[in-house]
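Re: the multi-chain job from yesterday

Posting the exact lines I submitted so nobody has to dig through the queue logs.
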Amino acid sequence: MKRKVTLKQIAKELDVSISTVSKSLRNSPEISEDTRQKVQAFAKLYNYRPNNIALSLKNKKTKTIGIIIPEIVHHFFATVISGIEQVANENGYNVIVCLSDESFDKEVINMEMLANGSIDGFIMSLSKETQLKKDFHHIEEVINQGMPVVMFDRVTNEVLCDKVIIDDQLAAYEAVDFFIKNNFKKIGLVTTVDYVSVGKLRTDGYINALKDHDRTADDAMIVKIEDIENCASKIEKLLQEQKPDAIFAVNELFAVTTIKLANKMGLKVPEDLSVIGFTDGIISQFSTPSISTISQNGIKMGGRAAQMLIERLEMEEENELYRTELIETHLVERESTPTL
Amino acid sequence: MKRKVTLKQIAKELDVSISTVSKSLRNSPEISEDTRQKVQAFAKLYNYRPNNIALSLKNKKTKTIGIIIPEIVHHFFATVISGIEQVANENGYNVIVCLSDESFDKEVINMEMLANGSIDGFIMSLSKETQLKKDFHHIEEVINQGMPVVMFDRVTNEVLCDKVIIDDQLAAYEAVDFFIKNNFKKIGLVTTVDYVSVGKLRTDGYINALKDHDRTADDAMIVKIEDIENCASKIEKLLQEQKPDAIFAVNELFAVTTIKLANKMGLKVPEDLSVIGFTDGIISQFSTPSISTISQNGIKMGGRAAQMLIERLEMEEENELYRTELIETHLVERESTPTL
DNA sequence: CTGAAAGCGCTTACAG
DNA sequence: CTGAAAGCGCTTACAG
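And the result, structure tokens for all chains:
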């Protein structure tokens, strides 16, 4: 076992000072060609690499980004991480990932843990519980300490910081508009409870689309789901009692569940019922029928979030001007909507 | 903006030494009740938190685990991370995630980056390219420097370290055995190229199961896929020319693709063709028909890997005795196999 | 051209 | 009971 070698050890072996070794390795012109070469050769031989932790302490920069997301076993969040990773790596940053499990307390604990010097800035998406409580002290505090935060997807207006989102309302509007333009009469909505920010926005988009076409949104056509585990009965009821000819679902899981339930009831998709989901994930692609959906490019979102954070980290002066970037979406037509 | 406060600042404010502050906060009995209280009150007021980086440098422990995986946009790996996270957090560790993107070079770079003091140990699964090249120097080196490594899923015998895997061969054997016992005659295999370790083992399991029942594995019944993008034609050919009544696929994607192709050819699953996949992921659960599969509990795998790593990190003396743990698997019967 | 000193933020053995 | 010193591994302004 050969432990990692330090400047100190090299200095001792070569009988020079630590400063000399350090400068030699950084190619300082202060040092004579001769010793520089000697030191570099030795360092190479022993495979010297500077200790990241020491550098972090010295520079007061860790070159690592903290990511806090509700869940990782969720295709969308996984793609976002992937996007962040890529841009981070290109810029010499690493990422440290913490999961809140949709819990406010875990979100707080994780943020505090990382905020104590482990990272340079955060990229995060709020947990459901945080959105419900509307308590953002932990985030405000971190920002107040001068640590930049970029929020994505599940964001809040109550915190001033950079954000990257899609236009959830518009995207939902377009999905419903598609149904209306194609002569669907009874358009149902399967959405989340209102405190989930993106769910609420998509619900608003649905309602607005109907309004703009002189239809009123009928509460009976709207199912709001709190807990994915127990969504079946509510959706079934909607299908049975209202007999919609189209359903807009605010995520993949709701969409695929709707299709499965429809199948069980003897309804064919898309012949008897058309379905549009949200988030172009693995389920939409591979289920049968494949599901038409609003694309939500997680890779791009993550990439933009990382760029925004890194820009802010490497900015000369502080800048109180925060941006909110929109990632464009579009409707991906697949088998769950008819080809017209 | 109130920057994070340090011991030094507290010491100055309170007109005591840094040592006194440090000891007070750690409740050292060396310090008088009086000053201890004073210091603690002040620290609380200013929300003092020790700097992780400074602690890491001092203790030569970062309390963070490095994870290197081929991809994160892959349900199985996401569940493993989730499992690691949980156990890590319970033990006061954070995780830093790097993706190799199936590339040898990225795997090497990421490992070197993290090995320079950023983490205490690795949990990793080999990239395809690494498995193809069979070059494990980067891993050997890290281990030689005294940094423990735990490999999971895609492992190699050529590196001595702790490992956590499933019995891929046995699991595949059981899937094929299920087919044989239920009187399927023409059992096809959709697998990866041989250099992917888990693919090869599953292929072996398939072959052994047939042999043990006095059947010979017919090469024409086996499709080995290099690149998921171009697998369709090969699978189609198998279905058309060999007319199998059952297919064992070594992952979800192969399984769902097989089913979709079969559907396109007018074959019904499970009536005309039974399919068993591998990895109990989101696709198997939500596709129509839902897919029978060998479960592969990623949460548990990740959890065990984290436990093994943490145990080794917190062990008193070095221990050259490495363990390989098996996570049990079982066949999850769903709609893609007939209920008998 | 080389090296001693100070410092990043902390801990702890030791002196007073 | 308190504090100065040394040290984790590094960098850099400064002295010689």
